[in-house]
Amino acid sequence: MRIILPALTAGLILSLAACATTPAPGPVSVTRFVDPAVAARTVGETFFVESAPGSAMPPEQLSAYKAAVAAELTERGFVETSREGASMIAQVRAESTVAAPATRKRGPVSVGVGGSTGSYGSGVGLGLGINLGGGGSKETRGTELGVMLRDARTGATFWEGRAQFSVSVDSPLAISQANATAIADAMFREYPGNNGETTEVRASSQ
What we know:
By secondary structure, this protein is α/β, with parallel strands linked by helices. Helices cover 23% and strands 27% of the residues. It has a single domain (23-201), classed as Lipoprotein like domain (Double Stranded RNA Binding Domain). The chain contains three helices and seven strands; from the N terminus they run αββαββββαβ. A seven-stranded mixed beta sheet has the order 3-2-4-5-6-1-7, covered by helices on one side. Helix 2 (59-75) packs parallel to helix 3. The radius of gyration is 19 Å and the shape is globular.
């Protein structure tokens, strides 16, 4: 017993130290805008994922977020295909920044239909003005993801999602692929969601 106890104690201390060093990720703030026409989109419909005009993230980094969005749509029964054969287009934009503790901004969520400077389907208004997760003296990686689903024939937007969360730069979710998977999973959870509603979704580490 005298041999085992120190080992258990040391293990517990290391475990607690790890928790203190790398804070758990905060929830993902998700806002969705749903047009009634979304009800007409059926399982088996085809889609194509492309970069949204004006996306700030370099193409090689954005590809991880586009792939994550495609995976979420496929999981919901839609079929990825070429742009020419798609009945709907998913336009993806993302932004990721690293902030030092002293420069992190805190403020209330501020959203509106289509964002504070645009309108529904405009794709503007990312940056919900909320700081989640991280904490302590760690730098954090903040990610914003925006997705618009458009009818391929008319170009009309029938669904729009926006999501944001922050994690410690030491978190496994700070890695691009894991980061993209986590934020896309949160955005599309319980798809299509309620029009204009902002919710907080627990980030998945899977």
